[in-house]
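Before surveying the methods themselves, let us examine one representative protein, pairing a chain with its fold in token form.
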Amino acid sequence: MILQKYILPLGGTESDNTAIKGIARAYISKGNHIITSSIEHPAILESCKSLEAEGFKVTYLPVDSNGYINLNELKRSITSSTTLISIMYANNEIGTIQPLHAISKIAKEYNVLFHTDAVQAGGVLPLDVEELGVDSLSLSAHKFYGPKGVGVLYLKNGVMLNKFMTGGHQERGIRAGTENVAGIVGTAKALELAYQNLEINNFKIKKLRDYCLNRIVNTFPNVKVNGGITNRLPGNCNISFKNINGNKLLQRLDANGICLSTGSACSSELATPSHVLSAIKTPKEYIHGSLRITIGKNNTKEEIDYLFYCLKKILQFD
């Protein structure tokens, strides 16, 4: 588990903002260079952009067709002014799980701090911060069936962090404001329950995920799976239909009571192509026809069958 050392009760976006901006500013005397990837969540990417406006330099590592960074390119990107590497544990759109152990080893070799956005990994993947080798890690409670609007920012002992919220002296002077005690307790309990049943839940979810993917890929022509198959989040299905308008498909599915997204669930209303699908070089005839299907522990085979039935009806209608 992760409940050790110093933890701030922040939601996922605030945790990412606090870690990236707080660490970068705290270590400005050492350097002003940050390394991240091109497929990070907007909470990371926008934080990096705001730091660039302050004079920081940011390297956005490209990824391969499955969404993995190149470890050799990461090494080549490190300079004497690099203070922070931020690579997400698992991608929120295509489910790719990055090699955190290898990244942390590189970070330690070059004496660079390592933060990971683990929001998608919470309640699904191992979170032993010592084993992962991270200096900072972000979680969001609702991803593991906890309350919304609260989460976790883990900081390793000794990691400096500039204030992000000013005001009172709560959280050892790092984050001002009255703590959401009910949310914090709910987060801790939800995380505890998630890891009590981790293997059982993941086995069930992965089985449903594979059933869903197989039914869709083996039925519809011109469908591609985005991201790798073997090393992805158990409940993540991201598919693209050739020359199909994903937003219209989404609307028709919604009318049938099915809640999905075309990319990140945080920005599914945007008409621009997903930055993640663009980064993995999804062909233009597929990039606007994507669906992100997220399967959880409470979903059933009957619900997958209903999704398949609706897809078949809607796509035949088109």
